[in-house]
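FORM 7B: Structural annotation worksheet

SECTION A. Query
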Amino acid sequence: MGRSFEDNCKEDVICRGLQIDRKRRKKLREWKRSRGIKSDHG
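SECTION B. Predicted structure
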């Protein structure tokens, strides 16, 4: 039981990280668009 709990915690942390990463990427995309920068190498 303790083992499955640890696995769930790990997955939860990974899911949270992915959600934060998506939000950051979305903000970066919108920011780049507003600045008129199309290339990722800025």
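SECTION C. Observations
Helices lie at 2-35. The radius of gyration is 17 Å.

SECTION D. Sign-off
Analyst initials: ____
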